[in-house]
Design a protein that fits this description.
Helix 2 crosses helix 3 and helix 3 packs across helix 4. The protein is globular. It is built from six helices and seven strands. A seven-stranded mixed beta sheet has the order 3-2-1-4-5-7-6, with helices on both faces. With 222 residues, the chain is α/β, with parallel strands linked by helices.
């Protein structure tokens, strides 16, 4: 006899509760304050990403259980380094870190930019599904984008920080910051443009992960 709809529903709810508990444990370990409603939205996001990923290959992380640490909690390490109320997430991919930051910081206006159309289509769906009024997405190369500047530009280090600054400097307000999410950091901040300076490189810990993670913050001079 095939399983009933009730058993499928029960299994899905049991899994959702396990994901929520994993997220809560990670947030507590990292001393992050996130409301219950925001936690639910983050679980909605990773379950949506998991479904789309089966067809569209948006991220190498396939299971929502792994996405809790590798995507959600990793994205939230950026929060202490944000300035002002606007950011541009360049090379956002499937909406990381932009979607988790938008969920947990409703006062923050976040534009996510990626050159992959299939990824920006997913992010558009996620923004609509989660009703994120403070989030938007654009399919574009960053070099071609002409928009009002933001207080912060956030990037997972998809190329060298110097190259990213040279490509995205027109997006960052004077007095704003460019924030780089990185693994290991060596001498990658030599030869910065004259109007940018490296403020600090912070080693960060992500609950559920042993990977080496750093946040590097560069200020754009007034």
């Amino acid at each position: 006899m095939p399983p009933s709809d009730d058993s499928h529903s029960g299994a899905a709810e049991s899994r959702r509760q396990a994901l929520l508990q994993s997220l809560r444990d990670g947030l507590e370990q990292m001393e992050l304050k996130v409301t219950e409603e925001q936690q639910q939205s983050m679980i909605d996001y990773v379950l949506l990403l998991e479904r789309w990923n089966k067809i569209h290959n948006l991220t190498a992380i396939r299971r929502a259980e792994q996405m809790i640490s590798r995507h959600l909690l990793d994205s939230l390490t950026v929060i202490p380094f944000l300035r002002g109320n606007s950011i541009i997430d360049v090379g956002s991919g499937a909406g990381l870190p932009g979607i988790p930051l938008s969920i947990t910081n409703p006062e923050l206006n976040c534009l996510m930019v990626d050159r992959s159309q299939r990824k920006t289509l997913f992010v558009q769906q996620a923004v609509a599904t989660l009703k994120l009024a403070n989030a938007s997405v654009m399919h574009s190369r960053v070099e071609n984008l002409q928009l009002p500047t933001a207080n912060g530009v956030v990037a997972r280090a998809f190329s060298s920080p110097v190259d990213i600054i040279n490509s995205c400097r027109h997006m960052c307000n004077p007095g704003g910051v460019m924030i780089f999410m990185m693994g290991h950091v060596s001498n990658q901040f030599e030869q910065l443009p004259d109007d940018f300076r490296l403020d600090a490189v912070h080693k960060v810990s992500v609950a559920g992960s042993d990977a080496t993670r750093h946040i590097a913050v560069c200020s754009h001079s007034e």
